[in-house]
Amino acid sequence: MTGVLEFTRVPHPSPVSEQDRARVLAAPGFGVHFTDHMVTIDYTEGRGWHDATVGPYAPLRMDPATMVLHYGQAIFEGLKAYRQQDGSIASFRVSSNAERLNTSARRMAMPELPEELFHRSITELLAVDGDWVPAAGGEDALYIRPFMISTEVGLGVRPANSYKYLLIASPAGAYFPQGVKPVSVWLSTEYVRAAPGGTGAAKFAGNYAASLVAQAQAAEKGCDQVVWLDAIERTYVEEMGGMNLFFVFGSGSDARLVTPELSGSLLPGITRNSLLTLAADAGYTVEERRISTAEWREKAASGEITEVFACGTAAVITPVGSVKSAEGEFTINGGEPGEVTMALRDTLTGIQRGTFADTHGWMTTL
Ligand code: PLP
Ligand code: COI
Fold first, then answer.
1. What does DSSP assign to residue 4?
2. Which residue, 8, 40, 58, 232, shows the most beta carbons closer than 10 Å to its own?
3. Between β-strands 316-325 and 183-188, what pairing exists: parallel, antiparallel or unpaired?
4. Ligand 1 atom closest to residue 207's alpha carbon, by position in its atom list
5. Are 285 and 247 in contact (CB under 8 A)?
6. Atom 9 of ligand 1 has which residue's CA nearest to it?
7. pLDDT tens, residue by residue, 154-180
């Protein structure tokens, strides 16, 4: 790409009325309502990124032989824009999401999007749809979904020569209908999410398709979520559904936090990375290492593991209250949210909402 790409703005001819938007914002749910506009930027081999547009949110027209429909070059990101106390809008660690989109792109033989365009796509969308960001003071935020698909038409199996980057946004409340109530998890030994050398470290659409049957199995077992184990030994904990996991050992100022190390087959969560920093700031020892299901079971029974929680952009921090596997069932912290879990949750959400000092420079005003 040469020079700065200008965005063409095409206003929606009939945007959602103020009353209807207020109705949506009063009870947004997750991922069911969308703002009036979307961003699209096209990529063509040899020409680079071109035709950046902020236009009406609308269906895409696609040839039935468009490559993404057959061979699945599709990646995405997820981040949130938060209303601040003074009415402004800020987002959290945008550069990390831009970087991870490009890591995913490289794994899927797709073109990288310059970080500056990623940022601009968000500021351009917020410039026209800023009124869709929920009010300050609560848990709600605007969930932003950047994604990229291949658009070349043809059935040959090879990287496509054209792509489309899109950005849509959706006002979001609690991801889990029960809010911060602890979830129950099923340890999946039959299905694995990702294997060494595979696509697990990419935010790749196919990973989510492959997860659905295991999530359905977890539900059949009476659990809210599936916990993924390593593909080889089916012993080491990787992550939970679409979230990373943390284990709290001990309590009070002696608490230690352990999170599965980045094995190459789990997603390097931006919330995970932020919590490693915030936990260290709070004086806790943090460790990234392998943790087995046997260690989890034994140390939960002995009281050494005191709390377990999952973390991600959509649901922030969710306590894990009970664990079920072929070997039986056990609870964590009597099925209640723990102190360390909730303190970290307050710190993280406080930074995101501008009520706690952003000492790491993670927030960007949009
Ligand atoms: N793991 C998976 C599989 C995910 O889809 C996500 C969500 O994006 C996460 C972990 C958490 O990542 P982040 O904290 O960047 O949202
Ligand atoms: C997360 O943000 O934690 C997610 O897993 C996003 C999900 C909707 C794919």
1. P
2. 40
3. parallel
4. 3
5. no
6. 243
7. 999 999 999 999 999 999 997 776 668
